[in-house]
Amino acid sequence: NIYIYISLRVLLIMLSNLKRVFVQFKTGDPTATSAREFLQRVSGANAKKSNPSCEINMNVLENGLAGAAFVELEFVDKDTRRILTADLKVEEILMQIQDKGGEMILQGLMKEVNYDPWKKENRLKDKF
Known about the structure:
Elements: H1 2-14, E1 18-26, H2 33-42, H3 45-50, E2 55-61, E3 70-75, E4 80-84, H4 90-112
Helix pairs in contact: 1-4, 2-4
Family: Belongs to the mitochondrion-specific ribosomal protein mL53 family.
Signal peptide: 1-23
Keywords: Mitochondrion, Ribonucleoprotein, Ribosomal protein, Signal, Transit peptide
């Protein structure tokens, strides 16, 4: 299916922005489906090839609260995000990674052209 192909391509591109991935869920928790699927995708051979330095770890709980599954991401810019996955589809987790990756690319481009949006002379509201 084309949707799965696109989400896998997006995942491979996005993994380049990740330093560490940690996934935790409880065995048999039906609300942990997206966390388990995300773990499966990031630990696949193609994903590992796209960023071999990305550390991927997991913790499968035998006891614990249902609905407490999460994915913790550390990006190469040292930003860390914990995403509770019980109410999310795996595509929504991937979108959050993609959004952060886009933000990092934009910051890199602004740095390349020596543009700081926080400098007073660059603020739009001060020009009107």
